[in-house]
Amino acid sequence: MAILNITSDSFFSESRFEDFEKIHAYLQHCKSLGVQFIDLGAQSTRPGFTAISSSTQIEKLTPILTYIREKFPMFYVSVDTSCPVVAEWALTHGAEIINDIEGGRNTPAIWEVCARYNAPYIVMHSRGSGDQLHDKSEYQNITIDVLHELSELVSNIKKAGVKDIIVDPGFGFSKSLRENHELMANLRFFQLFELPILCGISRKSMIYNTLNKTAETALNGTTALNTFAILNGANFLRVHDPEEAMEIIRLLNSD
Fold first, then answer.
1. Model confidence at 11, in pLDDT bands (50, 70, 90)?
2. Going along the chain, which residue ranges are E strands?
């Protein structure tokens, strides 16, 4: 799942796409690699981010989603939003999947939107809302607590009528450096849901802070942990660097 951010302040500067020439080149590259999913986001969720309105999200998404559907119909498009209004707009304008970093905790109406359009829903674990999503939280046991909280969400999402659910442990959100790595070490336990697992660890602080690097120099660490994730049950990798991620998949799936 290749990331396409149309924001001006994403934490990894190279992932900011603000002109169609650069967007086209990136999508063409993804196509040549065999990437199947594009994750489109108009709302930055980096630490300290400022929330934008649903109308502003839609305004930013409109030309890009239209362009993808016209020029690159082979991609499945997920839209990264926690807003039911944006989700409904996206699903009626060519997107197929909703990727919600709040997991519907604060806006459960988003589940009903996905159910109405029979759309797959990515439920990510997090706590808080808005600019509190990155605040440290208290856990008795990070793995057990995240599994329990996701389990409750999955149950409610199913009750709302959503048929296809993908779970995301929420690396980097409401978790300390140590807790992120403990959660990754225990990733195999998320197979208990018997649902697809998405890992979004690309160039995050759990990598570059551990290695004393920056987001810009965290590709090698990202590749190492993405490989571990695939070997421990991950079905989707959400990445800034699709070429390197596809190399992992090709090598691990080779005969």
1. very low
2. 2-5, 37-41, 76-80, 97-100, 121-124, 165-168, 198-199, 236-237
Token pair listed for 121: 């829903």
pLDDT of 16 higher than 70? no
Neighbours of 66 (CB within 10 A): 12
Domains of the chain: 2-253 (3.20.20.20)
Residues in Cβ contact with 251 at an 8 Å cutoff, skipping those fewer than 6 apart: none
Rg (CA), the chain: 17
Would you state the structure tokens that stand for residue 240, as one six-digit string? 């800034």
Distance CA 60, CA 41 (A): 9
Buried b (16+ CB within 10 A) or exposed e, 221-238: bbbebbbebbebebebbb
Say what the pLDDT of residue 46 is: 64
The H or E element that residue 79 is part of is strand 76-80
Task: Using pLDDT thresholds of 50, 70 and 90, give the confidence band for residue 12.
Answer: very low
Evaluate if residue 14 carries a pLDDT over 60.
no
